[in-house]
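Incident log, structure service

09:12 report received: a user says their structure output differs between two submissions of the same chain.
09:20 pulled the input from the user's history:
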Amino acid sequence: ECPNSPVVLYSRDIGTEKSFQRLKEDEPVFIASDITAIRENLDSIIVIQSKSSRSILFVDDEPNILNAYVRMFRKSPWEIHTAETGEKALELLQEKNIDLVVTDMKMPQFNGVELESRIREKFAEMPIVVCSAYPGLKDDQSLEFNGIAGFIEKPVDAEVLKTRISELLE
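09:34 re-ran on a clean worker, output below:
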């Protein structure tokens, strides 16, 4: 089941202005009335498929915040995973093909800085975005040392987070 997989609807009898067009900007559905046009646009279809196969892991000890992230990204082209602990996050990183991590800093057991350093041990190039209610953390030297790709203050602005994730996954 791949809800974000590209779909091309083909019929020579479709009366459209263009021989190939996307139905909606935020959905990977195309309509075509010409096989040549499909061949010519195959690269853009493949790019959409590669974007849709990306995975993001959200880590936060608050279930309500994780649920908010899931709702926020339910229509995104990315596969969303969540973890309430650093341990669970590390397990998911071993089991799944994760492309980016978004984590809170203040968590029980071990905090976001420790999670980041453990991620770096096995996934040195993994982009990590920190979302925290503590704005002073933005200037924390340990974040820079651990190669954090972004800091977003809570409450998280959905558009800011989506834009940052898009930039990092491109």
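09:41 both user submissions now match this output. Likely a transient worker issue. Closing.
09:42 reviewer note: The chain has a mean pLDDT of 83. The chain has seven helices and eight strands.
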